[in-house]
Each structure stands twice: as structure tokens, then as C-alpha cells.
Design brief:
Keywords: ATP-binding, Hydrolase, Iron, Iron-sulfur, Metal-binding, Nucleotide-binding
Low-confidence stretches: 345-354
Strand order of the largest sheet: 8-9-5-10-4-11-12-15
CATH topology of the largest domain: Rossmann fold
Distance between the termini: 14 Å
Number of strands: 15
Strand content: 15-25%
InterPro entries: FSCA_dom_sf (IPR034904), MIP18-like (IPR002744), Mrp-like_CS (IPR000808), Mrp/NBP35_ATP-bd (IPR019591), NUBPL-like (IPR044304), P-loop_NTPase (IPR027417), YlxH/NBP35 (IPR033756)
Function: Binds and transfers iron-sulfur (Fe-S) clusters to target apoproteins. Can hydrolyze ATP.
Structural class: alpha/beta
Subunit structure: Homodimer.
CATH superfamily of the largest domain: P-loop containing nucleotide triphosphate hydrolases
Number of helices: 11
Helix content: 25-40%
CATH class of the largest domain: Alpha Beta
CATH architecture of the largest domain: 3-Layer(aba) Sandwich
Mean pLDDT: 86
Shape: globular
Largest sheet: 8 strands, mixed
Number of domains: 2
Pfam family, one: ParA
Length: about 350
């Protein structure tokens, strides 16, 4: 019966990886007890965007097996490591960038990191916007100070279920940093290599806007899984977003997708939708790269950031938070596709019993 269940499960494909669950090694358990099939699927990320579809497909396939009266599907998750690990203990480094300032990049980065942690992933967040660090404030830890552990490595600050580092927690509040390129490069190296990040599934990096020294230093310092571009719908932002995409292309960093922030505004009193900055312009970029999501302009996202709580945790029921949660899950899916793309070609065509 175990073989019959596996045979049925081999007809179920992962919707993003386009290979069956059995050959992907995602079936952890498949057994029949008193007419009830117990199936455990080990997802490639706890933030799987298509978990519901996988569950429905598994149930439908297994119910076709003679003798099966019901199906109980449970899930685990193990984030697959990239072919070349980013850092010791860190499976993936994902850069969050933008072509220009003012598009809400840091807010998106904080909420993506918090959402991934909310779904059960081990997440770190690095504020690499050295000149304008805002992550510490958005995490409610502006007054905290970074300490060193026994190995003399920087100890990331823990808040909201994740670990983060920011220049704001190393320098006096309000003090401007007047640094040239070599000093920036040294600081980025320390943040990456001299910090006790521990075991992480994802290290989310909030980049400064534009295409400058920090971006180049990061791509030269660490193996990056990919980058996410944050933009708003209007043409001037999209032009700069295209420049950021070109920079990552020249640095051989894959673009995992586009996030259109402040995509539209829904009036709370009337429910009418206003396209304050136009809408859907990112879909032009999305013809080449996945559009991870469109996030509406919402005052609660700003209020939550000022209060130091990511919106996906403070008000997860709002439209903006729901959009950000879906963006994070879509991003996790793209990372999984990237991590497995090289190994899929080497998988055998025959079924593998797991």
C-alpha cells in the first residue's frame, strides 16, 4: 500500500518547481491506517505560497487509491540551501533594493522579514542603508545597542521573532556618517562576516536606494541568492527601477521579482479605490521578472512602523498587510525555485521511495 500511495503522489506536481513531490523528496510519510491515508509533505519553505493547492492536489490523488476512505495531510518545511551557501549557517541572502528613495523599500524589507519569520522561517535582517538606517526604528529598537559575544562577534538584536543589525544601533542617534567607499566596504564586510547570525534560512538585506558602493560591496562580499526591486507605479520610479535591475544584471545577481508599493489607495470611509500614482506600471517590468505583488497605500503601515511593530504582525488583517504576507510567500517560492533549479536536472526520472 505504501508503494500505491507513492505512485499516486508521483502524479502531484509542485506548482512552482513543476516536478512531482516524490522525485523532489518532499514526501516524508505515506501510510494507510484503517482506511485513512496519512501523508506528510515536507515543503521547501514554511512560507510556501501554494500550500493550499498542494494539499488539495494530494487529497484528490490519494483518494483515487483503492481502500482509501479519507486523507490526512500534514506539513513540515525545510528550506533548501543554495548550491553555493551564502555564509556559514545562512542558506540564502536576499537583497531588497530600489532605484530611488521614497518608494517604501525599508518598510517592505522589514515586513517581508517579519512575515517570513511569522510563517516559521529563521530570518535575519541587515540594514545596509548605512547613511539612512531606519530598520531599528521600525523594529522598535532604536535605543538598543549592539554588543559582542564571547567570540568577539557582533550579536544581532532580536525582536519580533527575527534577528537584525543596523548602523542606527552602533552610532549616536542623529549623527551623520560621512564615509567614503572603502569605509563603507569595511562596514558591510563586518556586518556580514563579523556578526553572529547563527542558523538562518533567509538573511534579508535592506539596501540604500540607487546603485552605489554598498550594492557593489555586498555582491563582492557574499554569495547572493537574488534581489527584489521595490518601486511605485509612476514612470519616474519605474525608470529608476529599471536602472537598479540593470545594475544587478551586470553584477550577476538574479532578480527574483518586483514589488509595486503604494500601488493604490482605498478610502476607508467610502471604500473607493484611488490610483494616486497610477497603477500597474510594474507589470511592464513584470513581463521579464515576476511581479511578487501590489501593496496598497495604507496609513496603518506607516503608523505601525512609527510604533516599532511591522504591519504584518500588528494588523495582519488589513489589505496592505495581507498583500505583504503574500509578497513574502511569493518571494519564498522564487527562492525555492532558484535553489532547486540546478539540482532538478540531476534528479532521476524514476520514482524515489522516501
Amino acid at each position: 500500500m505504501h508503494d500505491a500511495l507513492l505512485s499516486a503522489l508521483s502524479t502531484v506536481n509542485d506548482p512552482e518547481l513543476h516536478r512531482d513531490l516524490v522525485s523532489l523528496g518532499m514526501i516524508e510519510r505515506a501510510e494507510l491506517l484503517s482506511g485513512v491515508a496519512h501523508v506528510k509533505v515536507n515543503l521547501t519553505t514554511p512560507a510556501c505560497p501554494l500550500k493550499g493547492r498542494i494539499e488539495a492536489d494530494v487529497r484528490a490523488a490519494v483518494l483515487e487509491v483503492p481502500g482509501v476512505q479519507d486523507v490526512q495531510v500534514t506539513f513540515g518545511a525545510t528550506v533548501r540551501q543554495a548550491a553555493q551557501p551564502a555564509l556559514p549557517g545562512v542558506k540564502h541572502v536576499v537583497l531588497i533594493g530600489s532605484g530611488k528613495g521614497g518608494v517604501g523599500k525599508s518598510s517592505v524589507a522589514v515586513n517581508l522579514a517579519a512575515s517570513l519569520a511569522r510563517d516559521g522561517a529563521r530570518v535575519g535582517l541587515l540594514d545596509a542603508d548605512v547613511y539612512g538606517p531606519s530598520v531599528a526604528h521600525m523594529m522598535g529598537q532604536g535605543a538598543a545597542r549592539v554588543t559582542a559575544n564571547e567570540q568577539r562577534k557582533m550579536q544581532p538584536i532580536e525582536a519580533h521573532g527575527l534577528r537584525f543589525l543596523s548602523m542606527a544601533n552602533l552610532s549616536p542617534a542623529g549623527q551623520a556618517l560621512v564615509w567614503r567607499g572603502p569605509m563603507l566596504h569595511s562596514a558591510i564586510q563586518q556586518f556580514i562576516k563579523d556578526a553572529a547570525w547563527g542558523e538562518l534560512d533567509y538573511l534579508i538585506v535592506d539596501l540604500p536606494p540607487g546603485t552605489g558602493d554598498v550594492q557593489l560591496s555586498l555582491t563582492q562580499t557574499v554569495q547572493v541568492t537574488g534581489a527584489v526591486i521595490v518601486t511605485t507605479p509612476q514612470d519616474v520610479a519605474l525608470i529608476d527601477a529599471a536602472r537598479a535591475i540593470d545594475m544587478f544584471r551586470k553584477a550577476s545577481v538574479p532578480v527574483l521579482g518586483i514589488v509595486e508599493n503604494m500601488s493604490y489607495f482605498v478610502a476607508p470611509d467610502t471604500g473607493h479605490t484611488y490610483d494616486l500614482f497610477g497603477r500597474g506600471g510594474s507589470r511592464k517590468l513584470g513581463e521579464q521578472y515576476p511581479l511578487l505583488g501590489e501593496v496598497p497605500l495604507n496609513v496603518e503601515v506607516r503608523q505601525d512602523a512609527d510604533q516599532g511593530i511591522p504591519a504584518v504582525l500588528a494588523h495582519p488583517e488589513t489589505a496592505a498587510a495581507q498583500a505583504l504576507i503574500q509578497v513574502a510567500r511569493n518571494l519564498a517560492g522564487q527562492v525555492s525555485v532558484r535553489a532547486l533549479s540546478q539540482s532538478l536536472a540531476d534528479l532521476p526520472d524514476q520514482l524515489t521511495v522516501v
